[in-house]
Amino acid sequence: MTRARETRRPQFLAVGLFLSVLLVKSKQLIDHMKKVWNLRGQLEASTLESEAGRKFILVFSEEGDRKHAILAGPWQYKMDVFLVESLAEGDDPSSVPFTHVPMWIQFRNIPFYLLTKKLAFDLGECIGSTLMVDNNARGSISDKFVRTRAKLPLYRALRMELVLVDEITGEEVAVQIRYERLPNFCLFCGFIGHMEARCDVPMPDRKIMYNLKLRVLPVHFEFPHTWFLPDAMGHASPQRSVAWPWRAPTPASKEEKQDVP
User: Fold this and answer.
1) Is residue 236 helix, strand or coil?
2) Which stretch is the leader sequence (predicted)?
């Protein structure tokens, strides 16, 4: 009976890709990911022969563990990114595309009166595909910023800034971009997946165009303070209606005053 139950145990499939030029031992990499994911169930991993040490078939015993591995990245091993995508039963694992990596992104240097959830969403769409928006602004009272979780395309270089037009003054504002838990990337070309020694940029054209300031810690380590973030310009959140400024009561009309004994 026990063996029969084991054969009917559901399996949830995924494919993992270690996007790196490093030569690592597969067992050490998978053991590290098991600890990082803090799995509730079991995980079996096997290496694809065509890409030994780079791509893996991951078999989870719990669906929640698979969802966590796919959605809660970016994951790292030796600072290089480890990507996870779902695999439907019967599909060829070697054909699963790895085109994006999920990441929390900070947008800084924005005038405080422009900070809204809509702006955070739109900025995420400018550099990737927005997944969700932090409901609060973060940072110090004089240096607030917004956060967006987005799927960043791996086929594009990292963005260092965006130009925003101030709707109040009409002036252009250079919005600084920072990436939480950013894996290794090339300081020449700005792509995730390799560093300068393996960059394809021709030697005469190699210049340091990026810096490590793009990488920041997650906000809960540095910025415990949160600030109210409205949905859009000129709109207040329904849950925060009690926070409206105090207003004097409307004076009674002459007729109403005469009725008062």
Assistant:
1) coil
2) 1-26
